[in-house]
Design goal:
There is one protein chain. By secondary structure, the chain is an alpha+beta fold. Helices cover 51% and strands 16% of the residues. The chain has a five-stranded antiparallel beta sheet with strand order 7-8-9-10-11, with helices on one face. The chain has a four-stranded antiparallel beta sheet with strand order 1-2-5-6, covered by helices on one side. Strands 3-4 form a two-stranded antiparallel ribbon. The protein is elongated. It starts with 7 loop residues before the first helix and ends with a helix.
């Protein structure tokens, strides 16, 4: 997790005390919940403090009181690598004002009877002088820093998602406007081309005019593909949901044992036959542009019929998207318009 420094506005009255050092978190005495101070006093055994003080008492500044200090705030100065200034050191950390050792967390202590200096000490010296457990305060500060960093990261993610959503919406609107302009221009070109074709072919039979119009209009002058694509989608839907039921309703069996059907699906003529051959069963299906016989022989008429229907469910949408079906659809559209 990459730490981010807190602004000076959150440091408040401690700006001069820190002397321009970078701070990544602050936890103050007034942020403590009720009852914590008494709990901290109960956790500080007097005999242990006496032993620790006897070992470090020589480090105290001249005239510094031995008791009565009040813990005010703990700062997070960031991680550090070593106690000397080397080329690969991390920039965080601070030095204890009493023992001069490097530490990440600095505890600010004040005393009502000693105004010589304001002490920012590490955990070991804070154990000797402060009125609460410094390890507990450092743990609370670390939790607060992690919570703040997670909240900031979530805010950044939400902002990025909002920006991407707005950008995608702007692109969709721009594409929609361009599509509308292109469709309007295409419609105008189609109308002009149709008027020219109709003017030059007046007096000719209706079917000849239709065939000539289809063959002479260039692909750029053809009507928009959007209605044809919508028709293809309709064919796919009919093939997936209605084709099997339509074939079942139209199928009939002859006295030779053949099962035959013919249906019209979205204007497409579809037919097929299941017939016996060489002790087994085969099928043949027909579309406007193709006739195909099964290469496989089935053991029963039911299996051949099921394979035929499944094959048509796949073949019908493929045919609808072919050039033959497109030309037939455009011809029927122009025939209806003439």
């Amino acid at each position: 997790m990459i730490l981010e420094p807190i602004p000076e506005s959150e440091i408040g009255e401690y700006r001069n005390l820190l002397r321009g050092q970078t701070v990544y978190g602050v936890f103050r005495r007034r942020d403590l919940p009720p009852g914590v101070l008494q709990l901290m006093q109960d956790r500080r055994p007097a005999e242990l403090l006496r032993i620790k003080k006897s070992r470090r008492w020589c480090s105290l500044p001249h005239g510094c009181p031995q008791t009565g200090f009040r813990w005010e705030v703990v700062f997070d100065f960031g991680p550090y690598k070593s106690t000397y200034n080397g080329p690969h050191d991390l920039p965080g950390g601070t030095q204890c004002d009493i023992c001069h050792t490097w530490c990440r967390y600095g505890h600010f202590l004040v005393h009502p009877a000693w105004k010589a200096a304001e002490l920012v000490v590490g955990r070991d010296c804070a154990v000797l002088l402060s009125d609460l457990d410094p390890a507990w305060a450092e743990k609370k500060l670390a939790q607060e820093v992690r919570r703040r960093m997670r909240a900031r990261r979530l805010a950044q993610i939400e902002e990025e998602n909002r920006r991407l959503t707005e950008e995608a919406e702007r692109r969709r609107e721009a594409a929609f406007r361009l599509g509308q302009e292109a469709a309007a221009q295409q419609a105008a070109d189609n109308i002009a081309a149709a008027m020219l074709q109709d003017y030059g072919q007046r007096g000719r039979p209706r079917e000849e005019r239709l065939v000539s119009c289809i063959s002479n209009v260039s692909p750029a002058q053809m009507p928009s593909d959007l209605p044809w694509r919508q028709w293809c989608a309709t064919v796919r839907q009919r093939a997936a949901f209605d084709l099997r039921e339509a074939i079942s309703s139209a199928a009939y069996s002859s006295h030779q044992g053949n099962t035959t059907f013919r249906v019209i699906v979205a204007g497409i003529d579809v037919s097929g036959t299941v017939y016996p051959k060489e002790g087994g069963w085969r099928y043949v299906w027909r579309l406007p542009s193709a006739v195909e016989y099964s290469k496989r022989q089935f053991q029963s008429r039911a299996k051949a019929y099921e394979a035929l229907v499944a094959h048509l469910e796949r073949a019908l949408p493929q045919y609808a998207e072919s050039e033959h079906a497109k030309q037939a659809y455009l011809a029927s559209t122009l025939r209806a318009a003439i």
